[in-house]
Known about the structure:
Layout: H1 2-22, H2 41-45, E1 51-54, H3 56-60, H4 67-71, E2 77-79, E3 91-93, E4 105-108, E5 111-112, E6 132-139, E7 153-159, E8 167-175, E9 179-190, E10 193-204, E11 209-210, E12 220-232, E13 237-250, H5 259-264, E14 268-269, E15 277-293, E16 296-318, E17 320-321, E18 327-328, H6 338-346, H7 350-356, E19 362-386, E20 389-406, E21 408-413, E22 419-424, E23 432-451, E24 454-471, E25 488-505, E26 508-519, E27 526-536, E28 540-551, E29 553-555, E30 569-571, E31 575-588, E32 596-609, E33 613-615, E34 619-621, E35 633-643, E36 646-655, E37 658-659, E38 673-674, E39 677-688, E40 691-698, E41 720-728
Parallel strand pairs: 4-7, 11-14
Antiparallel strand pairs: 1-6, 2-3, 4-5, 6-7, 8-9, 8-41, 9-10, 10-12, 12-13, 13-15, 15-16, 16-19, 17-18, 19-20, 19-21, 20-23, 21-22, 23-24, 24-25, 25-26, 26-27, 27-28, 28-31, 29-30, 31-32, 32-35, 33-34, 35-36, 36-39, 37-38, 39-40, 40-41
Amino acid sequence: MRIIIILAMKKLIFVSLALTLLNANIWANSELEAVTIIGTQEDLKTLPGSGAIITADDLDKFEFSDVGKALALVPGVYFRPEDGYGLRANIGIRGTVPNRSAKIALMEDGILIAPAPLSAPDAYYTPTFGRMAGIEVKKGPSALTEGPNTLGGAVNLISTPIPTENGGTFNLEMGQDGNAKLHATYGGNSGAMGYLIEVYDHDTDGYTEINGNPSADTGFDKNDIVLKLSYQIDDNSSLLLKVQDSDETSNQSYLGLADADFLENPISRYGLTAGDVMNNEHEGYNLTYSTERENMSLQATYFYNDYMRNWYKTDNIGSAVSNTGTLTNIAGVSGNSLQNVIDACNGGTAAACNTLNSTVAGATFVKNNNRVYNSEGIDLKVTFETGNHNITLGYRDMEDYEDRYQLEDGYSVAVGGGLTKTFSDAATGSSDNRRKEGELTEYYITDEISLGKWTVTPGLRFSDYETVETRWSAGEKARTTIASGYPKTKKGDASLFGIGATYDMDNGKLYMGLHEGMTPTMGDAETADNYEIGYRNDNIDIAYFLSDYDNFVGTCTVSSGCAAGDGTPYNGGTAEVSGIEVSYSESFNEDGEVPMSMAINITSQEAEFSGTFTSDFFGSITAGDNMKQVPEILVSIVNSATIRGTTYNTMVRHVGDTCSAAYGASGCPVAKRMDAYTVIDMSAERDFGDFAGYLKVGNLWNSDDNISLFYGKRAPRARYLDVGLKYDF
C-alpha cells in the first residue's frame, strides 16, 4: 500500500508540473526529434569527456541487427557474444565485466532500459537493435549523470525518429539459415500531430545443428511494433508518446560444447538440449514533454517497462532421474551442474562425454527460468544558460522489481538424444522463489563554465536507493513461509563528484577529467575513481583512462560462471583497470570517381587486482593477477569505397585473448582461455532511384574460433549471405 500511495503522489507531482509548463507562454519553438544524451556531432566535439556517436549512415553500411557488431565501432567498448545474433547484449566499457551489461547504463532514448535497473540490472533484455537509428556512448566524467551504474559509462540506443514529411521505408532481407527480416516504417505530420508506425519482424532457423536432429530449429522469431505520436502544443512546447511491444521465441541453450566435440563440429549442439527455448515479451511506454526558449530547455519523461521471460533450458545433467525428482550424478563427476559435466569431459571422464553425446542413456533437469520484471518512474532535466555558465539540473525517480518462481522438470535421455519427461515439478521443487524490489531517487547538477579557451564542467550526483529481497520456501506458490534470514534490506546513498575540462587548441581539443563511479549491490557498493586524458579533432580521438577501484564486486549469477546463481555479492577489494583508446577516420578522393573512407578503432587495456586474498567467488588472488573477462586488445577496421554507383564496405573485428578466471604471471589456464579471434564482414549496396539493393557476407573466413567463456565452447555464426531490398516512399 505504501508503494502505491508514494507512486500515485509522484505521478501527481509530475502531471502537475507538466500542466504548469503547458500553460506557460514564454517558451520558444521546440523541435522533437530523437531523445539523446549527447546530441549532435557538434555537441560531441565539446563533450567534457570521451564519447562517440554512431549514426544511421554508419548502421546502414552493414544493415546491422547485432548490437555487438555496431559497438565494435567504438573503442573502449567490449561485447561478449553468446547466441551469434546479438539478441541479448553482454556489454562492458573500460574493463567492466560484460555479463548482461549489468555494470553500464544501458538506455533507449535516454531512459534506462534494463527492465529492473536497480534490483536486477543483469536482466536478460536488449531492445531490438535492428530498428535503431543510432547509438550514443558516454565514457568518463560525462557519464556521471546517467546513474545508477556509472563505473564504465552509458550506451544509449536511439529509436527511429518521427519523419518531418509524410513517407515510409520498407526493408526486406532474406538469406542463409532461413534468415528473413522485414522492417517497415510509415510516418509524418498532419498539422500539429506527428506520427510513426514501425514494424520489425526477424526470423531465422539458426546456424547450429542438434545432434540426432539436424533439421531442428535453433534460430528465433522476433516481432517488434513501435508507435510514436507527437503533438506540437503551440510554439512553446511538444509532447511525444512512444508505445513499444515485442515478443520473441528463440531456441537457444546455455550449454556449449566440450573441447573434443567443439573441434569435431563447432556448430553442433547436444541432443539433450533439443527442448531448450526462450520466450519473452516486452512492453514499454514513454511520455516526454520538451520545451525550450532562448536560454533554457526542459525535458520531462514518464516511463514504464514491463518484461516477462521464461528460458526453459538444460540446467543439470546426470545419469538418471527418478519420478520424484532425484537426479543421480554421472559416475566420476563430482556434481551435476553444466560446468561440472563439461569440465569432467574435458578432464577425460568418459562417462561425462558419453552422457553429453547421448551415446549412453542419461538424464537432465530442464528449468523454467521464469521471471517478471517491471520499472516505472520519471526523468526530468532542465538546462539553462546564464553568462558563461550552462547549468543542467536533473532528477530521476524510479521503482522496479524482479520476481522469480522457477520450476524444474526431469527428463530421461535415451541413446541418440530422445527426451522423455519423467518428473514434472508443478508445485514442490521451485529452485528460486524470490522477489526483489528497488526504489531509486537521484539528483544531479552540472555546470559547463566557459573560461576563454578552457571549458570546465564540474558535476555532482546524489543517489539514494533501497532494495528489499524476499525469498520463500521452495514450491510455495502462495508464498506463506518466508525463508530464514529474509527479507533482506539494503539501503544506500552516495554523493558522487566529477569534473571534466576541455582546452581549445589550434587543430583540436584537449580533454581531461575524473569522476566517482558506483554500482549499487545488495552488499557493499562497487566504487572506483575514474580518470582520463585525451585529445580529439575531426579525424582522431586518443585517450588514456584509469579506473582505480576502492572495491571491485563480483555477483554470483549463473551467467558469470557461478553455479549457485543466488545473486550474492562478493567483495574483491582494490583493483586497477587502465588502457589507451584510439579512434581514427579519414575520407579520400571525395570528389573523384572512387570516393573512399576508412575508420580504425583500437583499445589496449589491462585489468589487475591490487590485493592478495582468497574468495569463494574469485578464488585465490595474488596482487597483480589479471581480472577475468577483459580482453587486452580490441581492433576494428572499416573501409568503404564507391565504384560506379555501388558502395562496398568491409569490416574487420579482432578480439584479443580473454580469460574466464583471474590469472597470474603463469598465464590463463588452457581450460579457461578464449583465444583471440578475427571476424570479417562485407557488404555492397546500390541505389536504383527510390529503391536500393544490398548484399551482406558475414564471417567471410568462416571463423569457428571459440567465442564462449562458460558452460562449454561456442562458435560465432557461420559464414552467411543475405540479400535485401530497400524502398523509400
